[in-house]
Amino acid sequence: MARNDWGWTQHYPLVPGHEIIGRIAKVGDKADKFKVGDLVGVGCMVDSCRECSPCQHGLEQYCEVGNIGTYGGIDRFDGTPTQGGYSTGVVVSEDFVLKVSEKLDTKAVAPLLCAGITTYSPLRHWNVKAGSKVAVVGLGGLGHMAVKLAKAMGAEVTLFTRSMGKANDAYRLGQAVWCFLSMKTR
């Protein structure tokens, strides 16, 4: 974002931050799913057009008009740049807000709004269930989440890794099947 590596037009000032956990401070006149004080989470989008085919089928990330990012996007109603979770407040369409249980540790919930969604979406898309076979390549920020989610869905998971340390980490996550990849250098 700072160097515009992705080629997006940026509008400044820009306040980043996704994986947002917070409490509702205000509720718009047309919103009825949440009330002031509710503990909620927001991922990487705050709105979309809601009218194109992908939006109509629950695939807002593929919005043909352009989904509105948590930060660095342009609000479709007033044209102002969206500001992220490190700002003093964010404006989010209620359809992009998730209720968070008061019983959960908010520090543990926040990563679910990025790495969790990133890895859960394909598992859901491919209908992973008990008996499914899932391969995970690497055990980084996404890989460990994929292993945990796929195991929770009852899948048989195989981890591909080049690191014995990561294989041991996978074992601690309840993943006993792994394939060690050796890399030869010249």
UniProtKB/TrEMBL annotation:
<dbReference type="Pfam" id="PF08240">
    <property type="entry name" value="ADH_N"/>
</dbReference>
<keyword id="KW-0862">Zinc</keyword>
<keyword id="KW-0479">Metal-binding</keyword>
<dbReference type="InterPro" id="IPR011032">
    <property type="entry name" value="GroES-like_sf"/>
</dbReference>
<dbReference type="InterPro" id="IPR002328">
    <property type="entry name" value="ADH_Zn_CS"/>
</dbReference>
<dbReference type="InterPro" id="IPR047109">
    <property type="entry name" value="CAD-like"/>
</dbReference>
<dbReference type="InterPro" id="IPR036291">
    <property type="entry name" value="NAD(P)-bd_dom_sf"/>
</dbReference>
<keyword id="KW-0560">Oxidoreductase</keyword>
<dbReference type="InterPro" id="IPR029752">
    <property type="entry name" value="D-isomer_DH_CS1"/>
</dbReference>
<dbReference type="GO" id="GO:0008106">
    <property type="term" value="F:alcohol dehydrogenase (NADP+) activity"/>
</dbReference>
<dbReference type="InterPro" id="IPR013154">
    <property type="entry name" value="ADH-like_N"/>
</dbReference>
<feature type="domain" description="Alcohol dehydrogenase-like N-terminal">
    <location>
        <begin position="8"/>
        <end position="101"/>
    </location>
</feature>
<dbReference type="GO" id="GO:0008270">
    <property type="term" value="F:zinc ion binding"/>
</dbReference>
<protein>
    <submittedName>
        <fullName>NADP-dependent alcohol dehydrogenase C 2</fullName>
        <ecNumber>1.1.1.2</ecNumber>
    </submittedName>
</protein>
